[in-house]
Amino acid sequence: AGNVAEPDQHGPNVTPGANPPTLHLDPQDASVNINQRSVHLHAFVSGVGGGIRVPGPPGASTPVPFWRVRWRTSGQKGTLGGGVTQTAWGQTYDMQYIATSPTLDQETGEIDKVWVELTTDMTSPNPTPMQTIECRVRGNLEVTYEVVPDNKTIGPGVAQNFQLVIKDRLGNIIPPGNGTEITWTGTGLNHGMLTGLRQETSTYTSNTTFNFPPPRVDRLDVKVDGVTTYQRRETHWEFRPLETPPIQLVTTITPETVRLERGTAKAFVTVKVDYTVALQPNSGKISAGATRQLNVVLTPPYDGPGLKYKYTNAAAQGTLNVTNGERTDTKQVVYTAKNFATGGTDQISVQVVSFVGGVELETLGTGQAAVEVDPWRPVACTPEQDFNGASWFTAYQIRMAKVTGATSYEVQVTKHDGAPYNRTFSGATSTNFRTVDQVLDGGSTWKINLDGGFNTIESAATSRWNLYVGYCNNTTGKYKVTGPP
Predict the structure, then answer these.
(1) Does the residue 407 lie in any domain?
(2) What is the pLDDT of residues 407-465, one digit of tens each?
(3) Domain check: are 41 and 75 in the same one?
């Protein structure tokens, strides 16, 4: 950093040199009183001159500081931030002085000093400072400016008044006085609007719909100026050939207004929306291997950017199509019951969070859904017919969808006449469709003919088909499978 000498391009040897960095402090004079006990101090370091470019060492990337600063205070009437009178050497360039004297309302003149020191010694634990700058703190701050309230949380569509309050050094409220101009501003208001911009009291009205995620914070600033109007008098000569004398001295008087800032204050308003989060449907039963779509519903609705969703599931009976516990953009997920679920209920929850700039800021709410998984799957019943050119075979048939990896199937059926039909099998027992009470391989299903018959007349075969349709309408059944865990 600093004033590096330009090399002589024609000389045989060049030795670059640099002036030390320069330390700055703002302010170097500060005032406090019982209403305003703190002072914000800011230090910064600057170089002198432009310098020359020199190659960096191999592998060098981000520059690192080559100076350190330390803060100290005399500590007669106060402390630095954190209650200390001296900090360690480091890279802290912003510091707060806080007057802690219980008799601050009686203090006048200089009450304390604050120093900031600089060193380029990066290794010694207690180096000798190469530069020191002093700030004098006085106890004679005559007037303070504040906004009441200075931090307020309101709901949507709410009008909130903010009042400028001016106090003398003893805490008495005083009027702005003549020749005072008040200006309220809301820099980049995103969540409401400000009215009454030239009055002691300004009104902030929050929005009812929003384009940004929580937390929704707006900053309000008020500035107090002293306004003075004076008459600016200008005199000049003018040539007027039609008048006597032709050269005349002309004087113009123009009103001029001068504004001098007396003080500023700020306030923050947070617009808080009480959201409810639902995961819908929030309950229900599905069979093993089946799926259930779950949707996040936010009330009141918010469709803007900046939201993430975190789903959690113990996964005892099924799984989600998102990573458990990780943030995702999707507010619609699919739950799939395990093929070999033993039966039970999974509690699924979703947490809706605001996520801006890579940081999780706030939780809007949590929703839950309970998915009950039945290990039994439904049995289908339908007639099936086969014609071999000479006769029809019509079957009263149940079907079970195959499950990959299953080692056995347990079937429980109540037939059309109320009779039970129970069976356990692990695979096909016949390849002959024109049989009854055999397990047949139907490709993606297993088939069992509970009854069947032959007909050589088509109309009779049709009548048998219709009979079995009635049977199936009065048949119920279920099956479950076993397999690897």
Answers:
(1) yes
(2) 999 999 999 999 999 999 999 999 999 999 999 999 999 999 999 999 999 999 999 99
(3) yes
CATH of the domain at 101: 2.60.40.3450
Cβ atoms < 10 Å from Cβ of 204? 25
8 A C-beta contact, residue 100 and residue 78: yes
Domain that holds residue 388: 377-482
pTM exceeds cut of 0.90: no
Statement to judge: residues 288 and 262 lie in one domain: no
Note the pLDDT tens digit of each residue in 172-195: 999 988 888 999 998 789 999 999
Do 470 and 389 lie in one domain? The reply is yes
User: Which of 84, 107, 109 shows the shortest CA–CA distance to 95?
Assistant: 84
| Residue-wise DSSP of 343-372 | SEEEEEEEEEEEEETTEEEEEEEEEEEEEE
Give residue-wise pLDDT tens across range 272-317.
Answer: 999 999 999 999 999 999 999 999 999 999 999 999 999 999 999 9
Tell whether the model's pLDDT for residue 20 goes beyond 70. no
For residue 71 the two structure tokens come to 């803060």
Residues 327 and 358: their CA atoms lie apart, in Å, by: 11
- Rg value, the chain, Cα: 42
